[in-house]
Design a protein that fits this description.
The complex is a heterodimer of chains A (140) and B (69).
Chain A lengths: L2 H15 L3 E2 L3 E4 L2 E4 L13 E5 L2 E5 L2 H13 L5 H15 L7 H9 L6 H15 L8
Antiparallel strand pairs in A: 1-2, 2-3, 4-5
Helix pairs in contact in A: 2-3, 2-4, 3-5
Chain B lengths: L15 E2 H16 L14 H7 L15
The chains are: A alpha+beta (140), B mainly alpha (69).
Amino acid sequence: MSKSQGKLCDFFHSAKALGAKDGPRSWQLGGLYVDLLGSLENFAKTPLDELHAPYGPVFLVSPEDLLAERVLSSVYPHVNDSEAACARKLIAVALSGHIEMNWSELRRLAESAEYAIMPQLKKLVGETANDLGKSSPYYS
Amino acid sequence: MISENPVPTIPKGRPISWEDWLKGRRARRETGNRVAPEIIRRASSSRDKRLRKLFNGERGLPFKKTEEL
């Protein structure tokens, strides 16, 4: 058994001891679903955000990765207004300074072959900035 | 220097405390609501049966009211 498989077994035992149901990928624990996923698929060079929560640190996918993914989901595989609305909310929060966004890194991601969504990103950021009466970081 | 923005920013490269995270929740919610509908949870998906069974007929946990944040 590999080291990672051993850790997974430890988790399964702990989850069962806490009364978790289902598994092995999706668990119901304390009224919530907990999904066990593989390696984190992120492309941003910016670090994960870190929240010091009451029971320990929680690492959050960087906002650049989240936004690039959401903008992609708003147009692929088909236009999705709900995904676009979600992207707008994150853009608004970033433009308002409630979360640090590295706009240069986001541009790099949006222009990469993995995402290729720079026109859509530029449009959404521009529209959201206009709604808030702010300037877009992609228009100088 | 006194910050013009009293809402704690989620920083990059250093942790945010739980207290600061909570302090910013309302502002983040209200800002988002200025540019998109308040609730953007998907109306349905292939997981509907499972989710609605778990969350009393809804597809997820109830949203806390903005004024309670």
